[in-house]
Sequence to fold (156 residues):
Amino acid sequence: MIPSAFVALPVLPLTPSGKVDRRALPVPTAWADRAVKTFQAPTTPLEEAIAGIFAEVLGRPGIGVGNSFFELGGHSLQATQVVGRASQLFRVKLPLRDFFEAPTVAGLAATMMRYEQKPGQVLQIAELLRSIEAMPEAERNALRQRGADAPQRGRS
Fold:
């Protein structure tokens, strides 16, 4: 395991008992500054949806298409969550290994396109998600309710 940042300090802040005062340590800004400088907003519905998955899993907004999931603080268990959610949402069988090779929003979008069952399937789902997201809250709730009331096909 490699730390995400190193901060040089002339002296470590100590508590009265002589232990390192972790609350008094400065917040490393090197990675945060780098993420802000290289931020490129998602431009397609697919990139928006994947950035949303990253944001949910990482618990932080403002994910750019070129930011590495792992440089933003993600780890392997969270990577499995991203791959699982994306696979389920877009109906693709996405190998986890491919996410480790391209751990950005743009990389995952390109990878998902390679694994789609029907040409255009992933993009159609992304467009549908964008249109649902643009609906007023009342319409989305009504849509959810209709889906909950509909008979479940293929389930017993």
Summary: The helical segments are 30-37, 45-58, 76-90, 96-101, 105-115, 121-134, 137-149. Residues 61 and 112 are 22 Å apart (CA to CA). The radius of gyration is 20 Å. The domain at 38-131 is CATH 1.10.1200.10 (Non-ribosomal Peptide Synthetase Peptidyl Carrier Protein; Chain A).
